[in-house]
Amino acid sequence: MMTMPEIERCLRQLRLSGVRDTLQTRVLQAQGANQPFLETFSLILQDELDRRQSRLIERRYQQSGLDEKLTLAEFDWTFNPRLPRQTCFQLHTLAFIAAGENALLVGKPGTGKSYIAKAIAYRAILQSHKVQYLETDDFFHRYAMNSPAQREVRLRTIIDCDLLVLDDLFLARAIPDDAGALLQTLIHQRYKLRRSVIVTSNRVVQDWGTYLGDNTMSTTILDRLMHHCHLLEFDGRSYRLKEAAETLARETKAN
To answer: Family per UniProt (predicted)?
Structure first.
């Protein structure tokens, strides 16, 4: 019979870190409760599955481009009562991903569009979906600086993921020369594959042709994006201004 160090060494070789980390605890638990072997073994196997799922989720989060783990439960819905709360929670169920639908979040700066998009994206990662989150203007500039080979790899990752988030589209008035064609390619390819896109923007869709410099291209992009799409309009006061005012008030009080 193997000793415990020998068992742990075998588990390490088999890359069963979940089992290795909880084995001694499970053995003591079984001894103390006279637990049947199969019950103990099933718990040990579940430890391994839980560890692997946790690592998969963390790896997909790191690969997604998200920089925050946001949830709708932490969102202050009382600040702007006119926000489309019901539709936000409907998107949060992720049924739109299974249906290959899109979502367009449009409205004033600071009203929570990016927060909602990030919360939905993080929820998708927790449900084992592959997600790509892009701060759109920054992505356009970085993509333009890549080599052709790097562009091809990056484009394939973005097209193949389950959910693509294009945050703050047209935040800058001017976009790189090839950005319009790139955006059209992304939307068109994902449309053909019925893979979901979330777009947030401060710009009304009627002005997209101006920012793209091509009304025909704008029409093509919107035609594919808006087919099977949830349109959410965000209005009201700015959360950023609210937070800035609260910070200023605290600093003033402290001084």
So the answer is: Belongs to the IS21/IS1162 putative ATP-binding protein family.
